[in-house]
């Protein structure tokens, strides 16, 4: 049996085919309330823009609603795409959340725009400046959250003195190296970029330097999950995630798909091969099946936390999957 680790949830606030943005927001609130009841460590929402299947583009606004329907669970971004924003604005937003929900707010940061280049320009993202000012932006954000007011010309109110913990998110070695250098916890996106997982974790742990926030390395990794009472049910509901990846590869911008009985009727064999490779760490099946696969994943990575996403179209089925996952033996309850 693998060691116990905290379980967390990454919620993409999916706007399902046949559902409205309002439905997606209510569904996210239900997911958060269930995660709170079932002992998950944290629930994060991700910043995506211009995507018909995702309702969490205004991430901080969504988190305010999530905080209001939960009592204990940590809430945060997984992540905010920092190049899209002024660090001061993010400090004010998350400083406000930290004042509303003390000691419960995380801020995970990503380096990608989280959208296409035309939408990135519409976000007023600086596309002509330094090649990569991301490390400086992260350090600037840390400064706004600190209480070292004497050295500041610009202050974040709210934000100053809140010490909101930062995480770096990544799908390559770059963020692993930066997280190690800055002494920050690192979360790897193995739910959609599995190839570099083990290398990134190795690089992060080997190069980690202790910081005020964190004394030793801390790694979480994302996996998709569809857990059900039968293998057939789990696999049926996971076809939604597979079709979403097919749409991404085709550049088709549509709502989160309903599940289908036969994937070969909607995608080609070569597409399906690529999708299955990308989703190789997905946990799909009964509690027994998923428990076995998850034990191997935790053993291979020695990760400190698993962050699940549940890409399931029907919210009742999604909530049931969250409950079944929380009952697995090696979940360390918050």
Automatic annotation (TrEMBL):
Superkingdom classification of source: Bacteria
Protein name: LLM class flavin-dependent oxidoreductase
SUPFAM superfamilies, per database record: Bacterial luciferase-like (SSF51679)
Coiled-coil positions: none
Gene3D superfamilies the UniProt entry points to: Luciferase-like domain
Domain Luciferase-like: 7-299
Signal sequence residues: none
Family per record: To bacterial alkanal monooxygenase alpha and beta chains.
Classification via Pfam families: Bac_luciferase
